[in-house]
Amino acid sequence: MFFFFVGGVDQRVRQVLKSGAQSCIRCGSAADLVEYEKVLKLFFIPVLRWPGKEPAIYCNICSQFSPSFTPPDEAAADSRRSPLLSQVLRCHSCSRALDPDFRFCPFCGTQL
User: Fold this and answer.
1) What predicted TM-score, i.e. pTM, was given to this entire model?
2) Where are the domains of the chain?
3) Comparing C-alpha atoms, which of 72, 70, 66, 73 is closest to residue 31?
4) Residue 89 banded pLDDT, cuts 50, 70, 90
5) Confidence of residue 1 (pLDDT cuts 50, 70, 90)
6) 41 - beta bridge partners?
């Protein structure tokens, strides 16, 4: 007997909080600060929805969701510094710290 499962979890924009809030970490274009929801789909039909924990950055050009972060100079002044800052500024392959404007990691060459 073979069981074939078609489904998964998807992210969708619920509400745009601020247009052009930051630049996309993948393509560098202007991206929006949004509230999002996660959607469980079974056989391409939405079954369950729940809200995301924190606002995220969404790029309309490349459809990339990424955690929102505060630039380092503003983060020092902000007492509620985001714990996701270190994740955003690191390469996905070699985990080295990067400038958020980079499109490729200068250490391993991975496209961001």
Assistant:
1) 0.56
2) 7-68, 70-112
3) 66
4) low
5) low
6) 8, 46
